Structure formats: C-alpha cells, structure tokens
Amino acid sequence: MKNSSFAKVNTINQVMNGNRTLTLIKPKAVKEGNIGPILNKIQEGGFRIIAMKLTRLSFIEAQKFYAVHKERPFYENLCRFMSEGPIVAAILEKDNAVEAYRDFIGSTNPEEADEESIRGLYGTDLQQNAVHGSDSDDNARIEAGFFFAEREIFTA
Ligand code: CMP
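^ Those are the sequences you sent over. The predicted structure of the assembly is below.
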C-alpha cells in the first residue's frame, strides 16, 4: 500500500532529528480533565503535534520508561503514580524542541514553575507535575520509540 499524500512515514531515527521531543500528560492531569487546556497551551507555544495517543503504562512499563531514575528514592512511587491511570503521549516538533519545551513547561517542581507555565498551572507537586518532557535528543529518540511505531509519526 502506498503512503497517503499527507503522511510520509519515516524511521524513528530520521524523525527524531533534534527538532522533536516526547511529552507525556501525566495521570492526574488527565483525570482532572486537563488534556484539552494542556494541548492548547502546547500548540499556542508553537509546538506541532506529529504523533499522539491516549494510553496507559503498566507498572513494569513505567519502570522501564523511568529506568534512568531507578536508584532514586522516588522511583517506585513515581512508577506507581505513572501507571495509575491513562496518560497522553505525544511527539512535538519545533526548532531546538527538547530545550524549548523544557523551558516552556516550567521547573520540575510546580511550586518553582512560572505561574503561567503548564506545570505552574496544572501541576501540584514534584511527582504530579502535569507533564514530562525529554531531557536530551538521545532520550527523545528512545522515548519516542517507547511509545510510537514509525507508522504513527506524521511529518509534513
Ligand atoms: P519528569 O519530567 O516526568 O521526569 C522524571 C520525574 O521524576 C519528574 O518529572 C518528576 O515527576 C519526578 N521527580 C523528580 N525529582 C523528584 C523528587 N525529588 N521527588 C519526587 N519525584 C521527583
């Protein structure tokens, strides 16, 4: 079957080219009905959504996703919280996306985040900080591959 005219399908490595990042809307923000407002803010910030799904992590999947934090004291609680309900996963596109998105969403701790940032508006504490954003291009590539198949990522 030929690709449709509006969706070129590429490999994850081609797609995650330094101008893309992976975000998650975390369970509490989803439960509180904040998917719409958060996506709206993301788009107002000039980030283009090129892949997106509503999904749920098992505890074991959350452990794999956050494996980099496995020695940290908050690891188990974080994995429990991240697997307690549905999340939204999305790949966002913008120049210098990883850094731009981390600046845009605000500090990891919502109490220290700009009041108008996503974490300032919708996060409640360090763990339940509304959204995740990849912290490097390499991790963005790994995290995009964790959630998306190549055919689910759409470039112009
Ligand atoms: P996130 O961007 O998803 O990446 C790792 C997560 O670990 C982070 O957001 C926070 O939710 C969580 N986290 C980081 N530091 C702490 C901490 N000191 N206590 C509890 N959770 C933390």
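The helical segments are 12-15, 27-31, 35-44, 59-65, 75-82, 97-105, 118-122, 137-147. The radius of gyration is 15 Å.

Shout if you want it in another format.
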